[in-house]
């Protein structure tokens, strides 16, 4: 897939009060802004048009825009985020999406779905069942995707927070996999770049056109990705990691 557009959102000061399960400490807001700015610059280097939304202090986690939607070039699906404090993030995202898409679907209650649980690999989507995405939300998305001519497979997560916490698709039939996905039957048909336990955070990387962007400090993963023929960009992600966020979470790409 070639991406032309990305949507990002500056984190607000309230970010430090967002949801997290990690015990890495309180994010430093100044560092966070520097890291977010570097993320935006990296995307620009990947030759995409960046739509940069301003911070919204009412939603501490709203910089993680990926969770609000599932996008292809042809259509958008507005998600229904499973965390109560995040659900209304879609209210601000939907009008932004109408600038780009004529066809917009929505995931409806009792279905819940976070975009972070959805991975596209060419014509095939994988949908994770997590603490955020329930069976009804996954079923609704699968139905929408099948109507649009895609395949969809639903996957029960065991340990990972979101599906994409542990897996990324780089194109050319190559999957980056960690933990429970390394031997998962659903991903048997792919060539795999296996991420070791201590490098697990780097499984959340993103291919954007000519580059793979990955978090800084994961030399082993970087070598494997470069060994597969990709150019890489490394980004410091410490302040996002503190709130359970990764590289994919920070943008919607289409
Ligand atoms: C949350 O708990 O919702 C945020 N603190 C982190 C969301 C990360 N998003 C993602 O993995 N797609």
Automatic annotation (TrEMBL):
<dbReference type="InterPro" id="IPR033199">
    <property type="entry name" value="DDAH-like"/>
</dbReference>
<dbReference type="Pfam" id="PF19420">
    <property type="entry name" value="DDAH_eukar"/>
</dbReference>
<keyword id="KW-0378">Hydrolase</keyword>
<protein>
    <submittedName>
        <fullName>Arginine deiminase family protein</fullName>
    </submittedName>
</protein>
<comment type="similarity">
    <text>Belongs to the DDAH family.</text>
</comment>
């Amino acid at each position: 897939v070639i991406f032309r557009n990305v949507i990002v959102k500056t984190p607000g000061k309230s970010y430090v009060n967002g949801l997290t399960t990690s015990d890495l400490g309180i994010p430093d807001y100044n560092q966070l802004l520097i890291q977010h700015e570097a993320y935006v610059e990296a995307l620009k280097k990947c030759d995409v048009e960046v739509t940069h939304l301003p911070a919204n202090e009412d939603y501490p986690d709203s910089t993680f825009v990926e969770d609000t939607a599932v996008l292809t070039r042809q259509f958008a699906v507005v998600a229904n985020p499973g965390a109560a404090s995040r659900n209304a993030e879609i209210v601000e995202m939907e009008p932004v999406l109408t600038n780009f898409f004529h066809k917009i679907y929505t995931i409806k209650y009792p279905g819940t779905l976070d975009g972070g649980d959805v991975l596209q690999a060419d014509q095939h989507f994988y949908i994770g069942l997590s603490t955020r995405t329930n069976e009804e939300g996954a079923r609704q998305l699968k139905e929408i995707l099948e109507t649009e001519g895609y395949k969809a497979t639903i996957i029960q997560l065991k340990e990972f927070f979101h599906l994409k916490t542990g897996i990324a698709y780089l194109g050319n039939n190559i999957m980056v996999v960690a933990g429970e996905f390394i031997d998962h039957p659903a991903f048997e048909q792919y060539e795999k770049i296996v991420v070791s336990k201590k490098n697990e955070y780097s499984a959340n990387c993103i291919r954007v056109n000519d580059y793979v962007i990955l978090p800084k400090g994961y030399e082993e993963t970087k070598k494997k990705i470069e060994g597969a023929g990709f150019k890489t960009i490394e980004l410091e992600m410490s302040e996002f990691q503190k709130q359970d966020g990764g590289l994919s979470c920070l943008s919607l790409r289409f």
